[in-house]
């Protein structure tokens, strides 16, 4: 094997290992120049290694940005399982809020819902997803268990980072449903009606599951 091929193979194996062992998490951005400095090799073999990884579905090459680690592709069953998992985490968190008698301040989240309304059904669904991520981050503002919060947000990213066109379509058509229930959940939180907020979460997840079954 020639030296250029050995360097490409080294960059390929290193990058693939980083992805498979979760050292590079999904949605992480990596640049050629950054990896070049890390491995002490030129950018050319790294570029070739990235092309191989993109062909195998591990990454997405973004012009002038480097690469983005792809989310693991999931089936419809996996999609629904993640929704159900998110529901369990949300219900548990709302129980915590109720037990601690938290007075939930909703102002910032109400502003985010207004932002979501303005970008509903736009062609670039990443815009909606980014703002929705802010909603859930703010939603967990009173959480004391950072691990649980990370699990929820990672699950959210795994769903919204799917490249499958049918799932992308589901994410878009589900936007009005999300906004409706996001807003209602905030109304209940503002009134400290945690039991009703939990019920609303269950309705939301059920609605999203139905849309997924019908639309995917």
From TrEMBL:
Q: Which InterPro entries match?
A: Tscrpt_reg_HTH_GntR, WH-like_DNA-bd_sf, WH_DNA-bd_sf
Instruction: Please name the PANTHER family in this protein's record.
Output: TRANSCRIPTIONAL REGULATOR, GNTR FAMILY, UXU OPERON TRANSCRIPTIONAL REGULATOR
Q: Does the keyword Repeat apply?
A: no
Native species of this protein?
A: Carnobacterium viridans
Recorded GO molecular functions are: DNA binding; DNA-binding transcription factor activity
Keyword field: DNA-binding, Transcription, Transcription regulation
Annotated HTH gntR-type domain residues: 5-72
Q: What is this protein called?
A: DNA-binding transcriptional regulator, GntR family
Question: Which SUPFAM superfamilies would you find in this protein's record?
Answer: Winged helix' DNA-binding domain (SSF46785)
């Amino acid at each position: 094997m020639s030296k250029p091929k050995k360097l490409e193979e080294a960059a390929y194996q290193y990058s693939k290992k980083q992805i498979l062992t979760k050292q590079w998490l999904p949605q992480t951005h990596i640049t050629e120049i950054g990896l070049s400095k890390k491995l002490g090799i030129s950018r050319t073999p790294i570029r070739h290694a990235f092309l191989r990884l993109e062909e195998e579905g591990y990454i997405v090459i973004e012009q002038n940005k480097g690469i983005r680690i792809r989310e693991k592709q999931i089936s419809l069953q996996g999609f629904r399982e993640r929704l159900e998992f998110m529901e369990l985490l949300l219900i548990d968190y709302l129980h915590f809020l109720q037990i601690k008698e938290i007075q939930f301040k909703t102002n910032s989240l109400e502003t985010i819902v207004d932002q979501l309304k303005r970008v509903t059904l736009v062609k670039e669904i990443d815009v909606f997803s980014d703002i929705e991520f802010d909603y859930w981050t703010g939603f967990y503002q009173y959480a004391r268990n950072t691990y649980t919060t990370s699990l929820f947000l990672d699950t959210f990213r795994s769903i919204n980072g799917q490249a499958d066109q049918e799932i992308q379509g589901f994410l878009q058509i589900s936007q009005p449903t999300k906004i409706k229930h996001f807003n209602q959940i905030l109304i209940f939180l503002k009134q400290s009606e945690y039991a009703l907020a939990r019920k609303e979460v269950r309705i939301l997840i059920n609605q999203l599951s139905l849309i997924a079954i019908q639309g995917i």
